[in-house]
Automatic annotation (TrEMBL):
<keyword id="KW-0368">Histidine biosynthesis</keyword>
<dbReference type="InterPro" id="IPR015422">
    <property type="entry name" value="PyrdxlP-dep_Trfase_small"/>
</dbReference>
<comment type="pathway">
    <text>Amino-acid biosynthesis; L-histidine biosynthesis; L-histidine from 5-phospho-alpha-D-ribose 1-diphosphate: step 7/9.</text>
</comment>
<dbReference type="GO" id="GO:0004400">
    <property type="term" value="F:histidinol-phosphate transaminase activity"/>
</dbReference>
<keyword id="KW-0808">Transferase</keyword>
<dbReference type="InterPro" id="IPR050106">
    <property type="entry name" value="HistidinolP_aminotransfase"/>
</dbReference>
<protein>
    <recommendedName>
        <fullName>Histidinol-phosphate aminotransferase</fullName>
        <ecNumber>2.6.1.9</ecNumber>
    </recommendedName>
</protein>
<dbReference type="InterPro" id="IPR004839">
    <property type="entry name" value="Aminotransferase_I/II_large"/>
</dbReference>
<feature type="modified residue" description="N6-(pyridoxal phosphate)lysine">
    <location>
        <position position="225"/>
    </location>
</feature>
<dbReference type="InterPro" id="IPR015424">
    <property type="entry name" value="PyrdxlP-dep_Trfase"/>
</dbReference>
<comment type="similarity">
    <text>Belongs to the class-II pyridoxal-phosphate-dependent aminotransferase family. Histidinol-phosphate aminotransferase subfamily.</text>
</comment>
<dbReference type="InterPro" id="IPR015421">
    <property type="entry name" value="PyrdxlP-dep_Trfase_major"/>
</dbReference>
<dbReference type="Pfam" id="PF00155">
    <property type="entry name" value="Aminotran_1_2"/>
</dbReference>
<keyword id="KW-0032">Aminotransferase</keyword>
<feature type="domain" description="Aminotransferase class I/classII large">
    <location>
        <begin position="32"/>
        <end position="358"/>
    </location>
</feature>
<comment type="subunit">
    <text>Homodimer.</text>
</comment>
<dbReference type="InterPro" id="IPR005861">
    <property type="entry name" value="HisP_aminotrans"/>
</dbReference>
């Protein structure tokens, strides 16, 4: 760490994820907990990934492939980039830290469109950089004029999350293109596309087309959501080679374990699991939209696998009561949205149970 970063360490707040299932089980003594708090895949992990993990167990005495070449080659073939345009990380979270360590130093500015995923801020603070918050505009849409207005010669990194966590809103292709054209080229743009596969809007882009075109964009992806592999920790960045080469310098050689590499490579080709997941997500989202509407609650149209719902001033009480009844969701207060809950799309039964409990509380 540089000196400034060491000073700022005392201001860092560790990330607090949703309550784990086992913890609530122990607290309540209930066997069945419903967790709709971390945007995980309710159908479970990709079966092909599980087979690949089983097939790799006998090699666990070996170090993993430090170059992650098989996974990078699979990604390159699938996404029409070169293997040298990928860096594999221990979850998308690690990519954010690596990116911050590579490009940020004391005094730099990082633009974050808030509310959003908290790890961008963590990465900035870790390196002693200054966070410049640009609030989302009306209906949680990205405010392009405000983003451009926040840019100055100190800006090093612009973090865009699309679909955005926790709002589910997205940045249309034409607007991203315009933004990339007007931004000074020394600014690295992080396009966090962790939820990209759930997006259904025709003008949605995961940003890869701009990587192919050579813009200074790094697209973050994860195997935690669509592929159901959150527990094994694997994600990646896709970017022009010059950016990847710099990040590779700060990466630990064995950051991605052997089981994760094998699981990810297999999951990429599990088209059946992907199909079922997307179908279930679209159905589940409609079920939640309809249920909230019947309860007179409005929610934000989501391009993702979660829904942000406006509960009103009672949101915290509803969140706590749900928790006491064994249902874990996220309280919007952590993003300064104290009237909202962020609810991951679950199975049909989980969604129904959630709606029933909310109806009985309100
Ligand atoms: N980006 C966003 C927007 C996320 O919501 C998450 C997971 N919560 C991640 C990145 C990182 O996911 P993981 O570290 O599990 O790959």
């Amino acid at each position: 760490f540089n000196v400034k970063a060491r000073e700022t360490l005392q201001h860092l707040t560790p990330y607090t994820p949703g309550k784990p299932i086992w913890e609530l089980q122990a607290e309540l003594g209930l066997p069945n907990i419903i967790k709709l708090a971390s945007n995980e895949n309710p159908l479970g992990p990709s079966p092909r990934a599980l087979d690949a993990i089983a097939g790799s167990l006998h090699d666990l005495h070996r170090y993993p492939d430090a170059s992650t070449s098989r996974l990078r080659q699979s990604l390159a073939a699938k996404l029409e980039l070169s293997p040298d345009q990928f860096i594999i990380s221990n979850g998308g979270d690690e990519l954010i830290t690596l990116l911050s360590e590579t490009f940020l130093e004391t005094g730099d500015e990082v633009i974050i469109c808030t509310p959003s995923f908290s790890e961008y801020e963590f990465g900035a603070h870790l390196m002693g950089a200054t966070v410049v918050q640009v609030p989302l505009g009306e209906n949680f849409q990205f405010d392009i004029d405000a983003i451009v207005g926040a840019v100055n010669e100190l800006t090093k990194l612009l973090c865009l999350c699309s679909p955005n966590n926790p709002t589910g809103t997205y940045l249309p292709r034409g607007i991203l293109h315009h933004l990339l054209d007007v931004l000074p080229k020394h600014i690295v743009v992080l396009m966090d596309a962790a939820y990209s596969q759930f997006a259904t809007a025709s003008d949605y882009t995961d940003g890869l087309e701009f990587v192919r075109a050579g813009y200074p964009v790094i697209v973050l992806q994860t195997f935690s959501k669509l592929y159901g592999l959150a527990g094994i920790r694997v994600g990646y960045g896709a970017a022009p080679e010059t950016i990847i080469r710099q990040i590779a310098k700060v990466k630990e050689p064995f950051n991605v374990n052997a089981l994760a590499q094998a699981a990810a490579a297999a999951a990429l080709y599990d088209t059946e699991h992907v199909r079922l997941t997307l179908e279930a997500n679209n159905r589940g989202k409609l079920q939640l939209y309809q249920g909230f509407q019947e309860l007179g609650l409005s929610c934000v149209e989501s391009m993702s696998n979660f829904v942000l719902v406006d509960i009103g001033p009672d949101a915290k009480r509803v969140y706590e009561t749900l928790l006491a009844r064994g249902i874990i969701v996220r309280f919007g207060g952590i993003w300064n949205l104290p009237h909202y809950l962020r609810i991951s799309v679950g199975t049909r039964e989980e969604n129904a149970a959630l709606l029933k409990e909310i109806a009985s509380i309100m």
